[in-house]
Design a protein that fits this description.
Layout lengths: L1 H21 L2 H13 L3 H20 L9 H4 L7 H24 L2 H21 L4 H12 L5 H9 L5 H5 L6 H4 L4
Helix pairs in contact: 2-6, 2-7, 3-6, 3-8, 5-6, 6-7
């Protein structure tokens, strides 16, 4: 039986990765934006909780060698040509990490993998000219579920959030939350 479930997991991973390989960054962002636009409030809370759990994981572990690009997400560092290259490289690193997480097939790894999708398309929105409005629209919609993020976290991870995880519940990428002043 273990052989069958492992082959099922492998098939799901292959299918998941095949979709990512075939979709351009623009298509990935469009798909995530459509998912967010069509989501009910509880679904939005789960998507937001997953993104925040992924950020917490990236901040508190060295699973990805490059640190999270907070200066770009906060708007403190302008996204110039060098920034676009750095953000694109970080998105590629997150995509590789996402594959490893899906292969682990645990509740926490799958929760982080789900959240990485939002972060990856956010990086695309920031690094590819013309995509910023869609990234901002996605985060504006996610922010609508802010009050439900703790319940979303509980549903996603099947446990109470830790104190450290709760500190991330208020995080929103300022650069994507609203147009710069």
């Amino acid at each position: 039986m273990a052989k069958k479930s492992k082959s099922l997991v492998r098939r799901l991973i292959d299918k998941f990765m095949g979709r990512l390989e075939k979709k351009s960054p623009e298509e990935q962002l469009a798909a995530q934006l459509a998912a967010v636009q069509g989501a009910l409030r509880a679904e939005l809370a789960v998507l937001l909780a997953a993104a925040l759990f992924a950020k917490k994981t990236l901040d508190t572990t060295r699973q990805v060698e490059t640190p999270f690009p907070d200066a770009y997400f906060s708007g403190q560092t302008p996204v110039d040509d060098g920034g676009r290259a750095a953000l694109a490289a970080y998105a590629a690193a997150l995509e590789q990490f996402q594959v490893a997480l899906v292969e682990r097939d645990t509740t926490p790894s799958l929760a982080v993998a789900k959240g990485l999708t939002t972060l990856i398309v956010s990086l695309h929105a920031m690094s590819i000219p013309g995509l910023l409005p869609q990234g901002r629209e996605m985060w504006a919609r996610l922010a609508e579920a802010g009050e439900g993020v703790e319940e979303g976290h509980k549903f996603l991870l099947r446990r109470e959030p830790s104190d450290i995880e709760r500190t991330y519940f208020a995080y929103r990428p300022r650069f994507l939350a609203s147009p710069p002043d």
